Amino acid sequence: MSNVPSDLRYAKSHEWVRLDPGAAVVGITDHAQHELTDIVFVELPAVGRQVKAGEACAVVESVKTASDIYSPVSGEIVAVNAALPANPALVNTAPFGDGWFFRVKLTAPAEVDALLTPDQYLAQIGA
Amino acid sequence: MLKRTALFEAHSRLGARLVEFGGWEMPIQYTGILDEHHAVRKAAGIFDISHMGEAFVSGPAAEAFLNATLTNDARKLAPGQGQYTLLCNPQGGVVDDLFAYRLAPESFLLIINASRAALDIAHLRQQLQSFESRAQVTLDDACDRLSAVAIQGPTTPLFIDALLPAAALAAAGPDSRPSLLKRNRIASYPVGADTVWIARTGYTGEDGFEVVAPNALIEGLWNTALQAGAAHGLKPCGLGARDTLRTEMCFPLYGQELTEQTTPLEAGLDVFVALDKPGFTGQAALLTQKQAGLPRRLVALRMIERASPPVRPHYPVLSTDATPTRLGETTSGTLSPSLGLGIAMAYVPLSHAQPGTRVSIEVRGRPFPAEVVKKPLYRRPVPAA
């Protein structure tokens, strides 16, 4: 049974968004890390890059597959999780904590309201 | 509709994640590929390999038939011995790679790939039709009635004998226990009215065994092994770990390293091709290729930088010149769990096939430095004295 924290919003493509003052933190869900299995490589976007909602901007690889990670929101990448490239397994062990991917300074904050609520995401993954 | 092995229910109970492979619904992993990989390198793992095919070839002319059909020299096999060998088409392309065991002077067991089984049997039947002494050869397709498991890893000799009932071990004699088998040897054991074959072989680079049995016996053998091996670190392992383990050893996988368009010589399998024996299918083409010189060769590649992304099949391999040229593409590629580095195999021109040659592997449009290295990519550490 996947963990779906109630204080986050979710993208259909299995990223989560946590709103912090002035920025949004993005990661992938517990369900996603479980489906991907052992994560062995993470490629993060450059700080300063402008991303649009739905744009592929990171890559996560398990032993068997490579998957794109999409920014659920538009804005500027203002920080990335520097611990991930050296320790990609953090995505498996702490998907909602130390396994976060990047922070986006929002240019269209209303986009967050269009993301899935925890209940909607739970329904999507059939949990 | 995908085929299921006799162990399908057992896999489901163990929480396996299932994928399609060669027309079969097979476990790719149970706990995780890394975990299962390390279990096999350090202790033991058990794999369902029931998708693989089996065929018996017997009769007074069985040896002559196999020697006219397969690349390795079957005459070298004493009863109880096995050899890696290949089935080629007349152009020298690989129809399948397989293991051939001589069970008795006039009886052989072939272990063939799941994805090629039906085609192999058809190929063998067709060759048999034009074989002079065909009346003295029987080909028995046993794919549907036999199952198999591979038990691999350094601790397997400590518990392999426990798979067999005491009566089977007694019937075989004290010198014929599975744990006493030498590499590539096979023995048969009577279990009730049935026969179980155990061979000391595998596809992981570790010590280990493959157990072939009638479908109805395989779940009992699987459960007995899990029980007997528990104290020796045995874990159920899926095709994911089987692939990373064999890639580290540079063992070819049919459909990736080997196809009907690649020859065993290009794949570096020369020692399994007895070019000097009397005629076999593909021999003329292979001799011609050997004399003309190989156009390319299968090499092992290792990424230079630990931070490089994992390599996957079909990634371009480039030269490192100022204007890079495309040398080929990876046939297999993965993160090596044992080395913590990206590894791959690829066909490249002979000019770039020497160990030590620097190349680039292109990942998502960016070149990453790699090196041609000697096979295998992984060598078991020598235990401290």
Secondary-structure blueprint of this entry?
The complex is a heterodimer of chains A (127) and B (385).
Chain A: E1 9-10, E2 15-20, E3 23-28, H1 30-36, E4 39-43, E5 50-51, E6 55-62, E7 66-71, E8 75-80, H2 90-93, E9 102-106, H3 111-114, H4 118-124
Antiparallel strand pairs in A: 1-2, 2-3, 3-9, 4-6, 5-8, 6-7, 8-9
Chain B: H1 8-13, E1 17-21, E2 24-29, H2 33-42, E3 44-48, E4 53-58, H3 62-69, E5 82-88, E6 94-104, E7 107-112, H4 117-129, E8 138-141, E9 146-152, H5 166-172, E10 186-191, E11 194-199, E12 208-214, H6 215-229, E13 234-236, H7 239-248, H8 283-292, E14 297-303, E15 316-318, E16 326-336, E17 341-348, E18 358-363, E19 366-373
Parallel strand pairs in B: 3-13
Antiparallel strand pairs in B: 1-2, 3-9, 4-7, 4-8, 5-6, 6-7, 9-12, 10-11, 11-12, 14-17, 14-19, 15-16, 15-18, 16-17, 18-19
What's the gist of this structure?
The complex is a heterodimer of chains A (127) and B (385). By secondary structure, chain A is an alpha+beta fold.
Largest interface, per-chain counts? Answer: A-B, 12 and 17 residues
Question: Helical content of chain B, roughly?
Answer: 10-25%
Percent in strands of chain B: 25-35%
CATH topology (level 3) name of chain A: OB fold (Dihydrolipoamide Acetyltransferase, E2P)
End-to-end separation of chain B in angstroms reads 53 Å
Strand order of the largest sheet of chain A: 1-2-3-9-8-5
β content of chain A, as a range? Answer: 35-45%
Tell me the CATH architecture of the domain at 8-51 and 145-247 in chain B.
2-Layer Sandwich
The strand line-up of the biggest sheet of chain B is 10-11-12-9-3-13
